[in-house]
Amino acid sequence: MFKRVAKILPAACLATSAAWAAESPFIGQWTLDASKSRMPDEMKVANTGGKKYAFDFGGATETIALDGDFQPGYGDTLLSVKTQAPDTWVVERKKDGRLLLKATWKLSKDGTTLTDYFRQFDADGSTLSMDYIYRRSGGGSGFSGDWQSIKETMNSPFTMQVKAFDGDGLSFITPSQHTTRNVKFDGKDHPKDAANAGNGATAAGKLTDERTLLVTDKVAGNVSDTKEMTLSADLKTLTMKVSVPGRDHPNVMVFERN
Predict the structure, then answer these.
(1) What is the pLDDT of residues 226-247, one digit of tens each?
(2) Contact in structure between 141 and 124 (CB atoms under 8 Å)
(3) Model confidence over 12-29: pLDDT tens digits?
(4) Comparing C-alpha atoms, which of 192, 238, 242, 177 is closest to residue 212?
(5) In whole numbers, what is the pLDDT of the chain averaged over residues?
(6) What percent of the chain has pLDDT over 90?
(7) Is the Cα dihedral 169, 174, 180, 183 positive or negative?
(8) Is the dihedral of CA 60, 66, 70, 71 positive or negative?
(9) Which residues on neighbouring strands pair with residue 225, listed in sequence order?
(10) Which of 29, 69, 119, 141 is the 20 to 30 A CA-CA neighbour of 171?
(11) Residue 143: exposure state from Cβ atoms within 10 A (0-12, 13-18, ≥19)
(12) Residue 257 burial (CB < 10 Å; 0-12/13-18/19+)?
């Protein structure tokens, strides 16, 4: 659910990074304000002949038959797409026998918009619910085409906790996704310690000023996304802008301090 240059950190900031992290104004509990946030998404669907379609959700292109069977997808997952009705497709993804997500796509009568009722299922039984409305970009017919979201609705509560980490870093904890991101703010690339980070994944954190952080994620040395986090002057609002190379629009997530 949730796919995206900065100046070199001055020596003075590096020298005080440990003290800053321990008393960082970013530390605290934060709740997403969905009404102020935008999480635009893009996807591409192309018919490659017969019942076979190529799907690009922002990672590697996956080509499968539209028959409802689970077929090999990226990241050691299995992908299934089936036609429920002429205007309705159901997309499901599994890994190790567990259903990871289910998305029901509804095509508008004029074929210009697509509504995606997206549900992500966590191992503990909890569900992340989001609804997207996409608009067709360019040509194509039916479900085939390039789609860009014009509205995203987060139906589930989304919180983030920030804690001090290892003297000069911060931990970003998202309970709904059961993830913890530990980031050092010394400007250097450090291997990601998340379980699903993958080989060659690194993160580098920089303090650009007292209320702005920049985290650059890389895979095999290539930038996969940058996250710019900025605190409001009253320290009550945290705005996170996530930019992904090749994407026209960043995700902008606005959090309010609890």
Answers:
(1) 999 999 999 999 999 999 887 7
(2) no
(3) 333 345 555 668 999 999
(4) 238
(5) 87
(6) 69
(7) negative
(8) negative
(9) 217
(10) 119
(11) buried
(12) middle
214-228 pLDDT, tens digit each: 999 998 899 989 999
Do the Cβ atoms of 229 and 213 come closer than 8 Å?
yes
How far from 105 is each of 50, 67, 121, 206, CA to CA, in Å? 20, 15, 17, 40
Structure tokens at 258: 């609890």
How much is the pTM?
A: 0.73
User: Residue for token digits 């970009």?
Assistant: 137
* Residue 26 CB contacts under 8 Å (≥ 6 apart), including other chains: 162, 170, 213, 229, 231, 238
Overall size of the chain counted in residues: 258
Residue 6 predicted with pLDDT over 60:
no
For the chain, give the DSSP string. ------PPPPHHHHHTHHHHHHT-TT-EEEEE-GGG-B---EEEEEEEETTEEEEESSSS-EEEESSS--EE-GGG-EEEEEEEETTEEEEEEEETTEEEEEEEEEE-TTSSEEEEEEEEE-TTS-EEEEEEEEEEESS--TT-EEEEEEEEEE-S--EEEEEEETTTEEEEEEGGGTEEEEEE-SSS-EE--STTS-TTEEEEEEEEETTEEEEEEEETTEEEEEEEEEE-TTS-EEEEEEE-TT-SS-EEEEEEE-
Residue type, 59: G
Q: Which residues pair with 151 in a beta bridge?
A: 133
CA distance 56 to 54: 7
